[in-house]
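Aim 2, interim progress. The first record below pairs a target sequence with its structure tokens.
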Amino acid sequence: MALPPESHRLRPDHLPTPFSAEQIRHGCPVGRTIRLREDGAGEEPKFRRIIFTEVDGEASVQELQATDADGTQLGEPSLGHSTWLDLQRHASQPANATTVEEVRLGLPFGEFDCWLYTVGAPDAELRFWFAKELPGMPVRIEQWVDGSLAARTLMIDNATPPAAGEQGEVWGSLVEKDESVLKTRG
């Protein structure tokens, strides 16, 4: 099993992160657009769009926008600012409570080899899937409480603008409402 390299470890008591700050910077150029679907127990799905609008060697600015299921803007966008190191720190998890395994994950826009970080706590568990070929945020996040899925965030679309002289990569499709998203683990 090929786990993330030791050089990605930010703290001695944490596991290495899936990506370095530099890898995240290269994976999130100006124009990268991510769409997310957020499901919570007993709630209607919510949708968000993140667009990287400014990037430099140290940080990025993202436009954060609530949308409907079709991607139509709801309300006014807000701006977020993060250093690449801050984004890497989000994935740093305590070694004594976390396992990492390699898994294959199907997403609405394709199949991906991922690192699955599972972080345990009494009566709760967080799971983060990081697609190896999509440096940045997890492509899927789940929160389990007392054996039941309480919340899920799923990347449903990802578009990266083309580099000079290249064609960009676009993945994604509309995700239909899935009543089976929230269920009890057997």
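The second target in this work package is listed in the same format:
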Amino acid sequence: MENNTETPAVRTNFIHELIDKDNASGRFQGRVHTRFPPEPNGYLHIGHATSIILNSGIARHYGGKFNLRFDDTNPSKEEQEYVDSIIEDVRWLGGEFEDRLFFASDYFQRMYDWAVELIKKGKAYVCDLTPDQVREHRGAPGEPGKDSPNRNRTVEENLDLFERMRKGEFPDGSRTLRAKIDMAHPNLNMRDPVMYRILHAEHHRQGKKWCVYPMYDWAHGLEDSIEGRDEKTFKEAEEESDINLPNIFPLFQLCLGARVEIVRGLSFRAEAGLWDGVMLRGGLGYRF
């Protein structure tokens, strides 16, 4: 009888396999650089803890780097209290970011300049539709949407309106800056997504300097690009500007039954004194 002594390949997990494949090809010169990018609008929950352990653990496993970056682009919901709490929790969970603590708000001028660049190339426009009208124009899966009546504004008019938006000449919600992509795109999120909205609110770090704020879909990929992450997003921005962006691998949301896992839900209960579960350091909690 033939003696087969070949040892079967040991599988790790699909994330490590993707990184191993890139390292073997030399795609990123062996560099592994991850990040945890929370919005400081509440206390952390178990989903955040999973992300912290995953990303910091990957960096540690490959001898790479791990960043902590706050996605502080919505001043009406964010507070310094949450920033301090999150920093404490990340460290408690073993997320060692050393001196790599970043804030999206530090990049506001660069994001604005990139948006202006897209306007000049005819790839972005100022839209006067209300949020409800934007949703109505977006259409439905399998059906094309409708163009905004403002989609064909001239470059000069868009530049003027966007600058006036920044100066605070218009009320909240009256205008947005949208990317000009494709109103018939099969992915509804790519049908001219909003890049900037008007919001007259004091920022916890920038004060009253800004009254236009970038949307998540516009800001997040740029933040990764600025900090040199290994993921990329917003392909249109990469193709139409000098932005250098990586590949992103989306993961599913963690859902556990009969548990509060949403930041807003945790924050409400903590502020109302309704918390009767286990509170971990700095606010990271879970109700058993």
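Residues 78 and 212 are 16 Å apart (CA to CA). This observation will shape the mutagenesis plan for the next reporting period.
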